[in-house]
Protein 1
Amino acid sequence: MWSLLNSKTFKALSTTPRLWRRTVTTQSLIYRKFGQPSNELQIIEEDVPNPIGKQVLIKILRAPVNRMDLDIIQGSVFIVPYLGHNFFEISLLGTHPFKPKILPAIGGGEFVGEVVKVGELVVDLNEGDLVIPLRMHLGSWTKYKLAEKEEVYKIPEYSDLKEAATIGANTCAAYRLLKGFVNLRPGDSIIQNGANGFVGQTIHKLCKLWGIKSLGVIRDRPDAGVLKLAMERLGATVVLTDKEIDTTDVYKANCLQKPKLALNCTGGEMAESIARHLDKCGIMVTYAGVSGKPFKISALSSLILNEQRFTGFWITKWVEENLGSPHHVRMMNELIRLLQANKLKTPPLEIIPFDDFKEAFATCDSTSKRFMLDMTADEDVKWIGEGLCPLVPLGPCSNFGGKKEVKKSGKK
């Protein structure tokens, strides 16, 4: 395959001379204190040393912006963020009433990148390989990064960049929510609120693939009908608004069995609504609290008479505790297979050039619009067909499955 390092025209690239020095210069999006991302994020240049031992140097190609990334910058999630290229620590501080003080930090948690150099002890990764992170919150909003081999996962070379870049957090969370609490079989039902969110949409898709029926709950809104149709096209069996859920007759009409699993990301009244629909001995899992409101459950009805269980889940904690385990590897392998078969498409998001981050984050602060940073937008090489072809030099592209032409950056 063509890659940044094995191309015969490598010397023509602007970044080329740097890769043969002791360090490479990268641009990173950092924050020095907690606050609104649009106010706190700034671009800095820093040197990244060449990899040694089991380290790999990665050229970041795409990096999404997730809700968790923004929460960390705002200081509402207690994670010690990625500190730089010579030090990594993640601390799961739970609900401790303090915030991490180790700043500045590089933002971002997910990416897809190309290995451009490996340490002398790395034997199963090569220059040109595509990788995604196994660990979360490594600091992905940067053009080059140094990582340990065990922290990244090799993916097939023809992977779509946008899809690959979003597997690590939300897609893995959806997978674990469906696999980790109830032994769901084809024909079983689940119920979830926040059904139109990233995780919610992925849950609907996975349910359809696995023969599980899903009931989604969304907030009532003027365009609820349009949103319902969109969710049903993704795989939802039934979608109801929060005003319709308490009067539904889908169970009486034999459309659905009572759900064995309820998935809550909102809290408040919507959490209470889906809890009332749980089957006897069912489990409700809370993985987020978007509304910031608590919810009540009936000790007599839910806990005593129906023997229901209520628990929580955090994908970051699960990954740290299961890094490289058979469960972790099996999940990644299965998700990659679905991605390769084009059965797991990411929800719509806008690709934004890395240098245009200020405008993008200003939009993100005020809306629910999702976007992804493109670290290669200003370079003389482009990925073809949005990730279906590896990096190629300017000129005709070999038949990798992407488009035939190369989009030039405008540089001369």
Protein 2
Amino acid sequence: SRPPSQPKPVHIGSVRRDSGSLVSDNPVVQALLSFAQADQAFPPQAASIAGVQLEMRPRRDIEKALEEFKGAFTVEKAQLMSGANSSERVDEDVNADIHIPLLLKAIERGAAAFGPNALIGQNSAKAFLASCAPKITSNDDVLSEFINQKLKGDDDLQVRLGAQ
């Protein structure tokens, strides 16, 4: 049982070895494993026993972070051409919510999904999403250490996981 202060996992998956690679029954955990072992194989002792699990727990309040992201990427007004005069622009209320397509793009492209001027408060959108990356834990210390070392050195992966 987990301490009350520890948030519930957002993703949890069983991890096992299959033909030299690590695989999971959870698609998000599987994507993380694939990304982590793309350029370097997991150590042979990782997931060498039965019953290995990998958990992803939020570091921040997910609802609050989503509201912040949504607030930064909702278009409330747009300057459109006037019907009477095509050279004149008028403000129109549009209230267009674009945060879901942006999150999907961040999952797909990582840090490259945002330009340098994409800000949420004082932070870049990239830094904001990276701060939302979940904490990765496992009952296998070797697996946990390997994944967290990969995550620490990869801003792109942190942005993708934070958007997830």
Protein 3
Amino acid sequence: MAYVKMRWVYISLMVLGVFCLYYNLEDLNPFKGEPVIFKNELGDFLQLPDIDCGQDPPFLILLVASSHEQWFVRLVIRSTWGKEKIIKGKRIKTFFLLGTSPSKHISREVAKESQKFRDIIQKDFTDDYFNLTLKTMMGMQWIYSFCPQTTFVMKTDSDMFVNIYYLTELLLKKNRTTRFFTGFLKLNEYPIRKRFNKWFVSKYEYPWDKYPPFCSGTGYVFSSDVAGEVYHVANSVPFIKLEDVFVGLCLKRLKIRLEELHSEQTFFPDGLPFTTCRYKKIVASHHIKPRDILRICPFSHCHTDIQSHLVPNLQEDQFLLSTLLHRTLAALRAEASHDCETYKC
């Protein structure tokens, strides 16, 4: 009998312990006490792209948040929608934002990649999903410090398709070059307080009940003057790991209002099934894999040029994979051609 009682006491204590741990995870939160203010002293840049904006400033710069292992995704982007282009007389350039990796081998490969393509922006912070705020502020700092002459900037992610032709067309029509910020507007969003949710935010990190208006971090566009303003005001804004919300907090402090780019939806943070007609009239779509990019690009004015971007000093299996992708491009084009016949514009 005593054994049974002791067993129930033990089980009860275990359940109580789990219950207390579940409801007191904030005790482990580094933001406990009061919201931490962002500090933009992240040290020197480790990798910088090769561009002289003073001599030949681009019209639009795309900043793509990437991670070290996504070398192949970067290869595809460089060869398709991220390839340097002149559209309606306006130059568009693409650069990749990276943190650091604990792997020395991967770090060496990224350094080689940077030396070859000269399109990587990197600082010394751990490359992690919840460091996207640091990564985005790094991009803002780089624009402010090295390329304020560009007219527009787009921050986006590596699993996106960006129709730079339609984006350029809309930006020229908009004719707004100062204090301009657009994307997929989120005007009534609330913090998620459910623990273990990917986007959980504790009340210590963000004590307020509602987020300010912000644009989805999957892709937003702004005039270059905003980069410097956001970078400087960030010092007085409570830090939050959700980078799009953090940028929204900065914009609120700056009194910069979000604007729609077009009367029709052009940014699709939840993705959009591909059809030729649809993708000619969008700016950005989420959840896009490299194969999808190659399928879309022949019918969205992209130029696919995988062969010229092969990296001979990468491992042999990576090189062969790139070559195989180049050979399958014709089949993907044929598949998209059938889609084009199915959906007449």
Protein 4
Amino acid sequence: MNSDMNELDSVILDQLPSLRRFALSLTRTPFDADDLVQATVEKAILGWQQRRQQGAVRPWLFSILYRHFIDGQRRNGRFKKLLQLFSGDEGETATLEQQLEEHHALALFAKLPEPQRSILVLVSVEGLSYQEVSEALAIPMGTVMSRLSRARQAYRQLLEEVPAQGNAEGRLRVIR
């Protein structure tokens, strides 16, 4: 039992940054993301002994997080209105132009439907395989691939249709 708890501690600590990023992409607020990660960790601790032994732990954790998010959405029946920027490295200071471009990209990303956002984050940001995403979201692998394709296409279309606020070419205008 003690070695099981040590393994659990190690696995969860390694996955916390990834879980938080995914939670932030779903909830769009740091406070809600932290609450979602905390609930996920609690459920993982309680369910550690009952988990499927053959499955990988990482998709299992993402699955718990995603299902808890969906349950919360059903209970609340609404989405949050504000998009918070993902926090980057504290050592990096981005220029105003970079911050505006990031904000613009995230605002466009927020326009995608939640299933497409989830797939994009899990595959492109978290690096999960299609099979792991399929397990985490409890959907067929073909659905993962088609949603990912549609999400990428929709995001590209948004980028083309809505140039960054600035001049006609879509470049941000630098004011000095």
